[in-house]
Amino acid sequence: MDPEQVVAFRLARHGLATRSASTLAQAAACPASDFSRGSALLALAARTDAVTREGYDRAVDAGELWVGPSLRAAIHAQDPADAARFGPALVAADDDELAEQLGTGARRDLARVGIPAGAALAEVTDATRQALARGRALTKDELHEELRARVRDELLPWCKGCASHHVSPMIWRYAGVQAGVRYDARRRMRLGPRDRRKPPPAAGAARAFLRWYGPATVKGLAAWAGMAQAQARRVWETLGDDLAEVRVDGASGWLLREDEPELQSPPQSRGVRLLPPRDPYLQHPDRSAVTMDAAVRKRLFRPVGGPGAVLQDGRLAGLWRVRARGRRAELEVEALGQVDREDLEAEAARVAALRGAEEAEVRWT
Known about the structure:
Layout: H1 3-13, H2 24-27, E1 32-33, H3 39-45, H4 53-62, E2 66-69, E3 75-78, H5 95-102, H6 104-113, H7 117-131, H8 140-150, E4 158-159, E5 164-165, H9 169-179, E6 181-183, E7 189-191, H10 203-213, H11 218-225, H12 229-237, E8 243-248, E9 251-256, H13 260-264, E10 272-275, H14 294-300, E11 308-312, E12 315-325, E13 328-335, H15 341-354, E14 359-364
Parallel strand pairs: 13-14
Antiparallel strand pairs: 1-3, 2-3, 4-5, 6-7, 8-9, 10-11, 11-12, 12-13
């Protein structure tokens, strides 16, 4: 399989070949990270023309767009209909697998006090629901204060950075996933509509992963979904004969069999897109799929404070950053290849407007 076809397939599946999404929920079909507040808004703007800063905030407040802890318990914007599929459905039921999912820090804290991961998560989830009951909206600090009054002391380790006792970060974040926490436009936590049904099978999220990132592997699924390898393997195996093996540059990956025709003849992307850091398209576990240049990958995928990606006709053509300069948004663009400057300046103007600036200034480096 030609790698160019794979790239074109993934771009189309991420809504980046054309801005065809007609609603914000459609544009957020693949959950968009809002780790840095405002990133999800820019990610959606790369996929639809039906977005303004005011409209985005209204949709978030109304619950028409779900912003809250989701994949890997990180904050994402997504279609509200998928809140369970990319949230509770992926939380491990097995104590050991859940402990792995919660990460090293939480695992160490729980081992120190001898509390199983499942029991700890259930207690903090229940406390979170109580704290946010009756329509309450709380900031992070206010929620921590409520949790301090509602969970046992053993679940409140000392945090040197905060200079206080609070629930381990990944435990309270995953409790937010389990409780159905969403954020409003002011970044306050609320309870979303309570769905008392059993979460859907995790296979639904695995299918979605393959639709967006295929051909892929079970290791990639585990990384994207934040699952333990054993859990990811079990989920993967449920897909059975629905999977088709595809070889790309000598390496094996798997795709949903029903997607093979589109992989053979994907639509081509045209124009410039300014993708924010952590854009869904950039979350492919195999970062070489974005660029083969190891030095560029190291700069693009910095853990904190990384740049965004400039796509020209679907190919990585530059890196960009934006800074507020009074009423202007200053975009610094480093070209890595040929970029249509007129198209990029039009995109820069959209980014500026979404950030609340009156105009954009592009500086090329």
